[in-house]
Design a protein that fits this description.
Shape: elongated
CATH architecture: Up-down Bundle
CATH superfamily: 23S rRNA-intervening sequence
Number of domains: 1
Order of helices and strands: HHHH
Radius of gyration: 15 Å
Number of strands: 0
Helix content: over 70%
CATH topology: de novo design (two linked rop proteins)
Number of helices: 4
Structural class: mainly alpha
Oligomer: single chain
């Protein structure tokens, strides 16, 4: 069941990231940073989705580990954007909380998958 929740949360998060990308991109500033956020933020859900159709447990674990790394990268870019005043504190808190929730669920799923090897 957690995987379905992860799919739903990560898909919604990807859409939110796309909307944030569109908003920040309108300023025509910081394109490199916002592009990095777009890549990492949307990659989370793609890897979770792919992991749910993995050919083996090892493949599942690998895809979820990649998704987890993408979460950490997304959090990094959100921090950079906040510190550089590209996004305000409220936007940062909203997006960071969503990413953090996905990261925690991914970590729990990975622990379970690894324990059941």
């Amino acid at each position: 069941m957690k995987e379905n929740l992860l799919v739903d949360l990560s898909r919604k998060f990807a859409v939110d990231i796309i909307r944030l990308y569109d908003t920040v991109r309108e300023t025509k500033k910081h394109t490199v940073i916002i592009n990095q956020l777009l890549r990492s933020g949307t990659s989370i859900g793609a890897n979770i989705h792919e992991g749910n159709y993995a050919a083996s447990r090892a493949d599942f674990i690998n895809k979820f580990q990649i998704a987890l790394k993408e979460c950490y990268e997304t959090e990094y870019w959100l921090n950079i954007m906040k510190d550089a005043d590209i996004i305000d504190e409220d936007v940062y808190n909203e997006y960071f909380a969503k990413c953090s929730k996905i990261r925690k669920l991914l970590s729990a799923s990975l622990r379970t998958a690894k324990d059941n090897v």
